[in-house]
Amino acid sequence: MTDIPRAQEQLFDKRTSAREKYAALVVGRPGWGALIKHELVTLASQNTPGALGLVLRQTLYPALLAGCGRNVVFGQNVVLRHPHKIRIGDDVVVDDNCLIDAKGSGNRGITIGNGVFIGRNTILSCKNGDIDLGDGANIGFNCEIFSASSVRVGRDVLMAAYCYLIGGDHDFSDPSQPILAQGRRSAGVTVGDGAWLGAGAKILDGVSIGDRAVVGAAAVVRDSIPAGAIAVGIPAKVIGQRPSTGSGQGPSTSSGQAPSTPPSGARSGQGVE
C-alpha cells in the first residue's frame, strides 16, 4: 500500500498553522524565504494576460523551478506546486490553465523533456510519485496524468484530448469499510516511445503501453498492450498490429488483412488544437 495523505486531513490539521499548511501543500518548502519568493513570483506573473504575462512568466518562473531550459513558454494561470521538484527542458510549451503539481514528501517530482507540448487545462499531479515526459511528447488539452509511484510517458508520444493516465488506485478489499477509509496502492503506468493515445483514453494503474502502440478513442486499458499493437474498446482489446519499423508494410487487423483506413476506434484526433 502507498501512504497518500488526503488533502482534507492536511488542510484541517489543528496541529499546524495556516502558513505551514500552505507551505506543505503548495510551496513545498518550509520557512518564510521560500514562501515570500513563491508569492512574489506568482503575484507578479501568474495571472498577467497578453505578451507581458508571457515575458514575466518566462523570466520569473525559472527562479522557482529545479531546472528550466531555453525557450519555455508558460501560458496564463499556469499553477506550480512544489516547483523545486519540477525540471523542464528546452523548447517546451505549457498552455493556459495547466496545473503542474509535484507534491510529495520523498518523491523526485516531475521531469519534462525537450520539445514537449502540454495543452491547456491539463493536470500533472503527483502524490508522493514521479512523472517523466520524454522528449517531443505532445499532451492534448484537458488531459490528466496522476502518479502515486511512477508514470513515464516516452519520447514522441501523442496523447489526444481528455486522456487520463491513472498511476494509482484504491483498495476495496474490505466490504465493511468505505473505500475512502481503506488504503491506496500504485504500480505506475508506462507509455512507450511513439505511442498514440486516442481522445478520452483511460490507462489504468499497472498498465504498460508498448512502443508505437495505438490506443483508440475512449478506450479503457486495464491490461498491458504490446509494442506496435492497435487496441480499442472497453475494456481495450488488441485488434491489429502495426508493422515493425522499416518493414514497409501497412497495419494488419486480427483477420490478417491490412485495413484501408485506421480502425474507427483508433481515429483519435489531434493532440494539438
Structural overview:
With 273 residues, this protein is of the alpha/beta class. Helix content is 15%, strand content 26%. It has 4 helices and 26 strands. The strands form 4 sheets. The protein has a 10-stranded mixed β-sheet. Mean pLDDT is 89; it is low at 255-273.
Brief descriptors of the model:
globular, alpha/beta, 26 strands, 10-stranded mixed β-sheet, UDP N-Acetylglucosamine Acyltransferase, domain 1, 273 residues
Beta content: 25-35%
CATH level-3 fold name: UDP N-Acetylglucosamine Acyltransferase, domain 1
Order the strands across the largest sheet as they lie in space: 2-5-8-11-14-19-22-24-25-26
* CATH architectural designation: 3 Solenoid
- End-to-end distance: 39 Å
In total, the number of domains comes to 1
For CATH, the homologous superfamily is named as Hexapeptide repeat proteins
Number of strands: 26
Which structural class best describes the helix and strand composition? alpha/beta
Low-confidence stretches: 255-273
Shape field: globular
> Which sequence of SSEs, written as H and E, runs from N to C?
HHHHEEEEEEEEEEEEEEEEEEEEEEEEEE
User: What is the average per-residue confidence, as pLDDT, rounded to a whole number?
Assistant: 89
CATH class: Mainly Beta
